[in-house]
Amino acid sequence: MRIFAASLATETNMFSPIPTSVDNFLDAFYAPPGEHPDRPSLCSAPLWVARHRAQREGWTLIEGSTAWAEPSGTCAQAAYERFRDEILAQISAALPLDGVLLGLHGAMVAHGYDDCEGDLITRVRELVGARAIIGVEHDLHCHLTRQRLRGADILITFKEFPHTDPVERAEEVLELTLQAIRGEIKPIQSVVDCRQIASYPTSREPMRSFVDKVQALEGHNGVLSISVAHGFPFADVAEMGTRVLVITDDNKAYGDQLAAELAAELVAMRGKSTPPFLTAPAAVAQALQNTTDRPVVIADPTDNPGGGAPGDSTHLLRELLEQGENAILGPLSGIRSLCNSVTLRTGARLQLRLAARPLASGQPLDAGSTL
Q1: Which of 217, 233, 319, 369 can pair with 284 through a Cys bridge, CB separation 3.0 to 4.6 Å?
Q2: What is the spatial distance between Cα 287 and Cα 321, in angstroms, rounded to a whole number?
Q3: Which of 137, 110, 106 is closest to 231 using CA atoms?
């Protein structure tokens, strides 16, 4: 048995002005064939779990490249095509293959490609042929498009948000891919679009019970896998939003029925799964009421560099200054001011103008600092 594994991933915030380049991938995480470290990353877990299982069971794993860029703005076309074509060339050199494992975030967008993952999976299918089994792992903040579902036999998303289960889901992708290669199962997909955008933290109700229910359904009545694609709201693409994917063992009718029932439950949760949000004034005021000796963390969920945002909002900083409380705030983008600081000597007074996009991030804030 010959299986190829690779990973290409980033989470694209299309509203961010900061583009994603080749260097962003090389600086964040890039491992050519055979050089992936002996630990899983967020999106390369399928390769890592396959490496260890192949060693135990004696089948052949061909390791391809793995690349990850921290979330940012739309990818340069050349960046996506470079890493895509690198992986495709490796697959061509490895043929014939019984299966392919791909670790893909699921919300990657490049100039010229609204669906990078769909494009890559389609090209992989063209190379390996109809009989090879393609297994894919996605972050649950993905765009579950029709193109990638047409190309993949097995597609499984993380179940947990925060993401605590990439390895467990990668093990499921690998196991189902192996079973399909051996002819033990015939995976059939059923997908329903919930037509909604929402936040679904799974560490709190009602999503905690929903995920537990989904996992209890797997392994019964021919259900191989159930994935809930939460969607990534910071993308301007056609097929974004919440979707339910049920994979059954050759039981399309039941899969369709179950996917529709679970989707209806998610729609009924509309407005109930999103955690409560505070305004900046209310968040700072509540933090000031803290009576413990532990620090209070205030997080801005939209202007979040971890989700690809530029990190230049001044709303919280302005409230902290106005309410007179000492605090540490970061990261905060102020590129032009920071560049000017290299010409100043220690002890000089530096005048900063923070934030570069006043309409999106609040009014610029002027502040002075002594170096």
Answers
A1: 319
A2: 14
A3: 106
